Amino acid sequence: MDDKTNDPAPSRRQIVGGVTAGAAMAAVAAPALAQTQGSAQGGSQGAALGSGTGTTPPLPLAVPHDPRDAYPRPPFKVQTQAAPGLAGRMEPRPDHGEASYRGTGRLMGRKALITGGDSGIGRAAAIAYAREGADVAIGYLPAEQEDADEVLAIIRDAGRKAVALPGDIRDEAFCNRMVETAVREMGGLDILVNNAGMQRAQQSIADITTEQFDATFKTNVYAPFWITRAALPHLKPGAAIIITASEQAYDPSAVLFDYAQTKASNVAFSKALSKQLAGKGIRVNAVAPGPYWTALQPSGGAIPAALAEFGAKTSLGRPGQPVEIAPVYVLLASQESSFTTGQVFGASGGGGFP
Ligand code: NAD
Ligand code: MG
């Protein structure tokens, strides 16, 4: 988990009564603002919001709303899943923008590959990219097919090509194949989002096996290297590479000793590679999220008991929902940020770095 909630120290519980007000506002305004791009967006994948459980229509973007109450606040139900976890089994279900993200053609005709695009932050980016006009290929583990199927349907509903790339990115040969397949199926590549990640919380360094340490580094550090190296020959001037780092790169939790080191590595990836690729007209940036409500957390990323207070220590008193960070991925991929390279964008609900 990516905030201090994962630290064993007790956290300050911040519960406000505003959820009711926020939910009521959404319920009133949502029908007028519902997406009209296809049934999948407003159907079973509709946002599941509220306080801990239940469903609430997505908040309308046209109406200013209090960010403290915009999405579920702790306490959350303590829940666990086997890794890699499924977004579809979380309570409440994360909001990836299924019913709310509206595109304005900012990525029209682009071709994007997003690793870990089945759930969480990658899924929110995939939905946003498709609705901004991009074809989208998503990488994911075979065990996540049911989450991936939902995303693929949403991409197609947006009128874009969807490419499914199941497989394990800890395998270099698979990484090479994944890129080649994405390029072949979409007819090129303009945007690469290295987003897949593994996080396993452990109270002590003594509890971290060599297998865990190796898997965390293979997934979070080696794979972006392999995937980016394979993608590079296909990227032309104007292309964008984005890597999902974390606030853990700057302010690590005690229980994320191995993970935090990989995320610091992701920041260096973006800083060094941006200098290298500027001469080719390719931009490279990193996103450093704070705590987001994703399948990563109940599937070993968080100490289970700490999940109840997940996000409570942010300034806004709650975790982010994946949809809330999707616009950062859109901006970094689009021509609008043409002078932005080698940067790290934070979105942590207050506090944290950068
Ligand atoms: P998530 O579990 O929804 O997404 C991670 C995805 O990584 C999985 O869906 C899976 O498809 C993919 N993945 C993991 N191991 C893989 C493997 N061996 N082969 C292929 N794919 C694999 O969780 P998320 O929180 O959306 O994570 C996305 C990124 O965000 C990760 O890099 C994570 O480190 C980072 N992040 C998350 C948070 C947070 O609080 N959720 C905070 C900061 C950074
Ligand atoms: Mg997943």
TrEMBL record:
Region of interest (Disordered), residue spans: 38-103
Molecular functions (GO terms): oxidoreductase activity, acting on CH-OH group of donors
Transmembrane regions: none
Keyword Oxidoreductase: yes
Stored InterPro entries: NAD(P)-bd_dom_sf, SDR_fam, TAT_signal
Biased composition (Basic and acidic residues): 90-99
Keywords tagged on the record: Oxidoreductase
Gene3D superfamilies: NAD(P)-binding Rossmann-like Domain
Biased composition (Gly residues): 40-53
Keyword Transferase applies: no
Pfam families assigned to the protein according to its UniProt record, in alphabetical order: adh_short_C2 (PF13561)
Record-stated family: Belongs to the short-chain dehydrogenases/reductases (SDR) family.
Name of the protein in question: Uncharacterized oxidoreductase YghA
Native species: Muricoccus nepalensis
